Amino acid sequence: MDFMNTEQLKAHLMATDEEFRQLAAQHSEYERRIQEIESHVHVTPADEDEEHRLKKLKLHCKDRMEVILNRYRQQPVA
């Protein structure tokens, strides 16, 4: 597949790859929850622990998405 850039490839995968779509949704949800915690006026130690946990999960999703992107980038152009 010949994709001009990463954004086009991501758009293609969002439309055609269920795993990528699920990972992107999880990544967005983790980001939303992190932003919610960071918006608190007073962040408790429990909030900090949850934020740290969510950031790890978000990074894990991003890493898995990158593996999928790389798999498509390495396919020979037909």
In terms of topology, how is this protein built?
Elements: H1 6-16, H2 18-38, H3 45-73
Helix pairs in contact: 1-2, 2-3
Write a structural description.
- With 78 residues, this protein is mainly α.
- It has one domain.
- The protein is 78% helix and 0% strand.
- The chain contains three helices and no strands.
- The longest helix has 29 residues, at 45-73.
- The N and C termini lie close together (7 Å).
- The relative contact order is 0.18.
The secondary-structure element order is HHH
* Count of domain modules: 1
Biggest sheet character: none
**How much of the polypeptide forms β-strand, as a percent range?**
under 5%
Radius of gyration: 16 Å
**DSSP, total strands:** 0
The outline comes out as: elongated
- Share of residues in helices: over 70%
With helices defined by DSSP (H or I, 4 residues minimum), what is the helix count?
A: 3
Cα end-to-end separation? 7 Å
